[in-house]
Design the sequence.
């Protein structure tokens, strides 16, 4: 059987799909990853075969553009202005970016890039003829490929956010396009109402809303990219180990004032705990000298570290959050983006952590949240319960068998 994975241009959105792709490959099926050129190295590093034919939209730019829209509509929640969508520089006035003019001048280029991406998806689909398409919620190319090939399309969630979030959440993962957009490819409109099957890696207690689609549960098997495991991780820590991790996207999308890692380091540096921070070289340079109590692992896969930890402090990104859920580790989410806040709120509501809005979280507040999560057994018990819910779901290999049956053998 031929299985096409279609992915958007942000690795964190499709990394949760990698174990399923491995399972299908291991069972003898052909797997291809239809992606933008920016995702080719990551797909190859995961042992998958990329098809870098898409013209993926830049996720950082799209987020900045959305934030600009929110600010002009009065829905920007922070005391600073959003970044300039194009330059990424801090703005002193919303007048520095004319949203309407930009849309007028660039709609043709933007739509042209989308058409080229859809054309590439259509051409590869007709040439390769997949039997099944698995795609992340943002990958409309996956929906289109399945419609052209007349095969099942399966959306693979990356975390606690579903395909059918209520309007008041202000979160919408599945892109919407004007009626008739896909007539060129003889396909009727593609939107979230066309979603019929959803792979859900979340514990049942935290099942995201997916409308009327059929839910296909799968165990979340963390893949955070390649890495090496130091031998000291095999030794039980003498004190509770607290992991600090910050996403590469938050500052690029929300601005330098959203870089909360220095505050987090200051908040936990004097705790009676072992502090281990994983960060990029750029973020480490931005922080400057670190206290002696903080050990640094540069770009380290979380799935190797978190099982040894008693708590994790992060930005609310789905990769960090889901890896912590699978490892049974209590969490403190210091969030800025809407989806990240939703993630943190849902984990906190389940009793497995705390969520703090980033612009309101000072050093004392962060320290208090981490101290409480470490000190009260209820958080660890809830995290362990959720980890059990993750482990109880079918393995990627079991789901692969189900998908093969669904695709007709």
Sequence:
């Amino acid at each position: 059987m031929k299985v096409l994975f279609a992915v958007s241009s942000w690795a964190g959105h499709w990394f949760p799909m990698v174990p399923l792709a491995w399972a299908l490959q291991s069972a003898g099926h052909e797997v291809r990853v239809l992606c933008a050129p920016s995702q080719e190295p990551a797909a190859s590093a995961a042992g998958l075969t990329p098809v870098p034919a898409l013209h993926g939209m830049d996720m950082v730019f799209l987020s900045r553009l959305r934030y600009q829209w929110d600010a002009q509509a009065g829905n920007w929640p922070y005391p600073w202005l959003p970044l300039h969508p194009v330059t990424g520089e801090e703005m002193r006035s919303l007048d520095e970016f004319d949203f309407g003019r930009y849309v007028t001048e660039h709609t043709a280029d933007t739509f042209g890039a989308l058409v080229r991406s859809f054309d590439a998806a259509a051409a590869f689909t007709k040439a390769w003829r997949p039997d099944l398409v698995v795609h992340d919620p943002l990958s409309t190319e996956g929906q289109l490929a399945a419609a052209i090939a007349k095969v099942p399309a399966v959306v693979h969630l990356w975390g606690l956010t579903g395909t059918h979030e209520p309007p008041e959440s202000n979160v919408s993962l599945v892109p919407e396009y004007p009626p008739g957009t896909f007539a060129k490819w003889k396909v009727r409109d593609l939107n979230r109402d066309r979603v019929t099957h959803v792979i859900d890696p979340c514990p049942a207690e935290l099942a995201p809303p997916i409308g009327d689609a059929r839910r296909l549960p799968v165990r979340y098997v963390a893949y955070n990219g390649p890495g090496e495991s130091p031998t000291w991780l095999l030794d039980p820590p003498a004190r509770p180990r607290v992991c600090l991790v910050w996403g590469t996207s938050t500052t690029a999308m929300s601005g330098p004032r959203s870089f909360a890692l220095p505050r987090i380091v200051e908040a936990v540096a004097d705790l009676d705990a072992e502090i281990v921070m994983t960060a990029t070289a750029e973020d480490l340079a931005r922080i400057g000298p670190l206290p002696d109590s903080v050990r640094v692992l540069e770009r380290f896969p979380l799935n190797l570290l978190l099982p040894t930890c008693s708590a994790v402090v992060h930005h609310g990104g789905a990769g960090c959050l889901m890896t912590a859920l699978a490892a049974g580790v209590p969490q403190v989410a210091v969030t800025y983006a809407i989806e990240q806040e939703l993630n943190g709120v849902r984990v906190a509501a389940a009793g497995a952590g705390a969520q703090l809005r980033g612009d309101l979280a000072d050093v004392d507040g962060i320290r208090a949240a981490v101290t409480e999560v470490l000190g009260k057994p209820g958080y660890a018990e809830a995290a362990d319960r959720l980890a059990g819910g993750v482990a109880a779901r079918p393995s990627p290999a079991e789901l692969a068998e189900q998908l093969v049956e669904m695709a007709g053998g």
